[in-house]
Specification:
about 500 residues, about 55% helix, four-stranded antiparallel beta sheet, alpha+beta, 15 helices, Four Helix Bundle (Hemerythrin (Met), subunit A), seven-stranded mixed beta sheet, Alpha-Beta Plaits
Length: about 500
């Protein structure tokens, strides 16, 4: 099982020593990394973010829950945030390379173990829910600890999925589930009036007809003398951060107040921040491949992350796909050819010898193919984004032009892969008779991989050419070069 994220929420946000002990229990588990610890005194709650493989995450969650059960007594707990347990909620979140099915399996395994070993009743929620009404976390937490303590004894609808129908005397119950990435986002108002925050929350949240995939509550944050609209964005692609903020801002002005500042609790996908940046900066045609840090990460890490690339390639995600795999084949071929030439160049080989030039060509090609692995995925993501924009604005000339530009780029990248594969194959064949005979099998493998890079690249070109034709565009230039390259020895 590939890596997942786990984000347990604990009903303790005021005692740093207790929170430290809870987080420390996870840090002792091999294969688990604690990415973030966030505590809030008014909510009296801490959110701890972990990543690891499924088995290790389950072990870490259990270790943390043992400590939380020992340290937290809900009979004496007070805080703004609703809760049913000392460990209130434990979601598993699939990352690249894992699936929601993996997260559901982890939720079930942990739930069974928690009920059996800790005597805490477990409610499965989100994608792991066994009852439709429990897919929504607020339904599971209805009544909080105090209400659940009574209703679990007499209401069959409140029976847990694991464990006995009674709360743990001090640790209460726990909701364990599987979900997509969630953004916890809070907006602080320029007023301490919590009733204003509650009215705004009621307007913007999905269940009352507001924004899709938004949960919201209004809280009084006494330490700041401010009211807060606390939101969970359960699908930031449907309702991005900037849209949630603008909705809160618009409603706040109805009551004569403003949004003073906002905050993100826990971690956030970089794509969500890029969405907000593009919106506020009006970067309507911004290519995220131009982000400096992404380029640096790609240049620094691509050659060392091939196993991770294979995990992403195997995942049920649109990218990376065949174009990236074709480029990866080219990168392997170039590296192997470089090795053959390194052994074949002698100490007395002059610098202008074709063997030396061929080795340089392999090195340059390897750099190109590694970059193309990312470029192909980025090109397809740009096509998907352009299609979405065009669907929303089908008659907008700028959207039409952006769609065509994205399609041409998505054809050009794999065409470049095929072109470079053919060029390098020609170079290697020209010097092949001078390479060491003992390395003939390595040279043959390199040429076979270049043939695969050419064929895979051209297959992707054909798909994107068809889309360009459907958009009414001339594709003669792509088709002519593709025909020439397909007739060569790859």
């Amino acid at each position: 099982m590939s890596w997942l994220e786990c984000v347990p929420n604990f009903s303790e946000g005021r005692d740093a020593a207790k929170v430290g002990r809870i987080a420390g229990a996870a840090r002792n588990v091999p294969g688990v990394v604690v990415l973030d610890v966030e505590s809030n005194a008014d909510h009296n709650r801490s959110v701890i973010t972990l990543v690891g493989n499924g088995t290790a995450l389950i072990e870490a969650a259990m270790a943390m829950m043992r400590v939380a059960t020992e340290l937290i007594d809900l009979n004496h707990h007070q805080g703004e945030h609703p809760r049913i347990g000392a460990t209130d909620v434990v979601p598993f979140v699939p990352l690249e390379g894992s699936t929601i099915a993996d997260a559901i399996e982890c939720a079930n395994r942990l739930g069974e173990q928690v009920a059996r070993e800790l005597g805490i009743p477990v409610y499965l929620y989100g994608a792991a829910a066994r009852r439709p009404e429990r897919s929504e976390l607020p339904n599971v937490r209805a009544g909080e600890f105090e209400g659940l303590r009574e209703s679990i004894l007499r209401d069959p609808a409140r029976a847990p999925d694991f464990g006995e129908a009674r709360v743990h005397p001090t640790a209460g119950a726990v909701a364990i589930g599987a979900r997509a990435v969630l953004i916890a986002y809070n907006a602080y108002l320029t007023t301490p009036d919590v009733q204003v925050a509650k009215r705004i929350a009621r307007t913007v949240r999905a269940r009352d007809g507001g924004l899709a995939e938004v949960r919201a509550l209004g809280f009084e944050i006494k330490e700041r003398n401010r009211a807060q609209v606390s939101m969970n964005l359960t699908d930031y692609r449907r309702t991005p951060i900037h849209r949630a903020l603008e909705a809160v801002r618009r409603e706040a002005r109805r009551y004569g107040v403003e949004v003073e500042e906002s905050e993100i609790v826990g971690l956030v996908p970089e794509e969500a921040l890029f969405d907000a940046a593009e919106y506020y900066l009006q970067l309507n045609r911004f290519d995220r491949a131009a982000i400096l840090e992404r380029k640096v990460r790609s240049a620094a890490g691509s050659e060392e992350s091939f196993p991770r690339f294979l995990e992403r390639l195997a995942a049920r995600t649109p990218t990376p796909g065949g174009g990236s795999a074709a480029a990866a084949a080219g990168a392997l071929a170039a590296a192997l050819g470089e090795m053959v030439l390194a052994y074949s160049i002698g100490a007395n080989t002059p610098g202008d010898d074709p063997l030396v030039a061929a080795r340089t060509a392999c090195r340059d090609a390897r750099t190109f193919f590694v970059r193309a692995m990312d470029d192909d995925a980025a090109a397809y993501e740009a096509v998907r984004a352009a299609r979405k924009e065009l669907k929303d604005h089908p008659a907008d000339p700028a959207k039409l032009a952006a769609n065509v530009a994205a399609l041409r780029r998505s054809a050009d990248v794999p065409l470049s892969t095929a072109r470079n594969a053919v060029r390098l194959a020609e170079v290697l064949r020209s010097v092949g008779p001078r390479t060491k005979p003992a390395l003939a099998s390595d040279l043959t493998t390199s040429l076979a991989l270049l043939s695969a890079a050419r064929d895979g690249g051209l297959a992707n070109v054909r798909v994107n050419v068809a889309d360009l034709k459907a958009a009414g565009q001339s594709t003669a230039d792509f088709e002519a070069e593709a025909a020439r390259l397909s007739g060569t020895d790859g």
